[in-house]
Amino acid sequence: MTEWMIIGAILLFAVPGTLFYLLQHRLVFAPRYYPDRSLFLERSHCYRLQTLQVAPGVTLEGIVYEPDAPATATLLYFGGKRQDSVALAGKFSERFANVRFIAFNYRGYGTSGGRPTHDTLHSDALQAYDWAGERYGDIGVMGYSLGAFVAAGVAAKRRPRWVVLVSAFASVETLIKERIAVMPRVLIRRKYDTRECVSEVTAPLYLYASRDDSVVPVAHALKLRASAPNLAEYKEFSGYNHDELLFSEALLEELEKVFAS
Hints:
There is one protein chain. The protein has a single domain (38-259), classed as Rossmann fold (3-Layer(aba) Sandwich), CATH 3.40.50. Helix content is 40%, strand content 20%. The chain has helices spanning 2-28, 38-42, 89-95, 118-136, 146-157, 172-179, 194-198, 218-227, 249-259, and strands at 47-55, 58-65, 73-78, 99-104, 140-144, 163-166, 205-210, 231-237.
């Protein structure tokens, strides 16, 4: 009886653990593509579709929104797990008409080729930053959720004008352990450690979070704040869930100040 209990206990943890190990990619990435690019075609003088080859046979889809008037700032944006970052160009430009907006979809997102991974997120983002910097000079970076991890990684290796992190997690490892307390660390293939990246950022860092975010609890932002050597601003909001904060009026007002700095 004891032997069967031991076998049962092993299976109880081994089967879910194995499935979790194999399916982690789906927990981190959820590629999106919104095929309506008609706005970009109608206003091609403002919205310029781009491509960026990041590896042999792998090209990323990108967009540059160029204001009619001289740009007051240049923003390189990195989107969240379920965002088509290129498609967001229209929404950002509606609010920040004088800010040059640049975004490239991750591998597998939009019409970008390849498959996203932990390592390609960083390497592709650095290539996107260098591409933008060569053409537009002094640029700031901004990331939302998964994109905050990417933006922090770029800012740790480069020196942007500023870096804005919205709804950022301290690490995926921390998120997983908060939900599955008994998950062995060895089964977590990649940490996606934003906190480690933030500790190396020397550019002014702006950190925004919501107390009502049930996906990424505000405790993650507090950990990032404690790790930031050059924190320019930390602000918590109330009344917004994970999907609502990015385009909330309260945050947009703060971003206006950042983009003007």
